[in-house]
Amino acid sequence: MKLQTFDQEEMILRTMNDGALVSLERALLVLSGLTTEDGVRSYEQKIDEIYSRFRKECNARGIPDQSEPPLYLHRSIAECLFDYLWLSKPKRFGESFLLADVIDAQLDPNVNRLVGTCVGLTSLYSVLGLRAGLNLSLLVASAHLLSRLHVGQECIDIDHTDPQGFDCHTDEGFKEYSLVVLTANVLNSRGLWNESNGRFPEARADYRKAILVNPEYSNAYNNRGNMRLKDGDVEGGIKDYSEALRLNPDFCEAYCNRGIARQRLGRFREARLDFHMALSANPEYSDARTCMQLLDDIEHN
């Protein structure tokens, strides 16, 4: 896994935040840790190879290769790309979230090699779909993300973790964003990886960058709150958890985390309310029950 930073990473993210056009493909490769122009170019060539193989599948289906395909072909092209990726690697769902790692897995001759998480798989589909001239956006929920294909007034949702996921049913828990917001999901995943491997300064930076790209990203606020709590900044953690809950009022983990923070400050009544809210959002959330029991023990002793 390539996790070095690239000098242009911060600049690219700030450019996105300012609303300027940025190549999603390049941004995702930079976030993968490619530190030189030669490194970026080598992976662009690998994408060329995957795209060429996909276009051969399109030609076999009678879909012509056009840089600006007519609208009536968009669904066929999108479905062909989805099918090609699943047929070439039928055990796709894995742990990789960085585009460079996903590309390497996709090109591996081992047909059984796992390719990536929903973030990684959506990243690969997105860069290939953009090359094919498709109009794609991103659907984001707290624990999952999908692609959305726009064909005129029609919307077709695509779940890359499900072999039957083309034109899937989507519930109301998803928000739609432009594709560049995918970089925020990559950064949040990178932050979680860094945190789990004890790279705490890098994790803090990743969560901050994820929020910079997508100020509505409740997961990143929650995760940054965890880092602040770890650092002893309890009030800062509460502030981040509260923002996560403002953005997602059903975020049971954020309620529980805020309750833990408030309990540390001796604000037991507020902590108990947060644990109750976590269980109201998800009655099966066992961590909130455990926290409630611990709070009971503290108050009774």
Descriptive overview:
The protein has 301 residues and is α+β, with helices and mostly antiparallel strands. It folds into 2 domains: 9-182, C8orf32 fold; 217-300, Serine Threonine Protein Phosphatase 5, Tetratricopeptide repeat (Alpha Horseshoe). It is 59% helix and 7% strand. It has 13 helices and 4 strands. The chain has a 4-stranded antiparallel sheet, covered by helices on one side. A hairpin with a 4-residue loop joins strand 1 and strand 2 (145-151). Helix 11 (252-264) runs antiparallel to helix 12 (268-281) and helix 11 packs parallel to helix 13. It is elongated and about 75 Å long. It starts with 8 loop residues before the first helix and ends with a helix. Mean pLDDT is 93; it is low at 2-6.
Short recap of the structure:
By secondary structure, this protein is α+β, with helices and mostly antiparallel strands. It has 13 helices and four strands.
| H/E topology pattern | HHHHHHEEEEHHHHHHH
Give me the count of strands: 4
Low-confidence region ranges: 2-6
Spatial extent as radius of gyration: 21 Å
What is the terminal-to-terminal distance? 48 Å
- SS-derived structural category: alpha+beta
Shape: elongated
- Beta-strand content: 5-15%
Total tally of structural domains:
2
How many helices? 13
CATH arch. level architecture of the largest domain: Roll
Mean pLDDT figure: 93
Q: Please estimate the helix content.
A: 55-70%
Write the CATH fold name of the largest domain. C8orf32 fold
Main sheet: strand order? 3-2-1-4
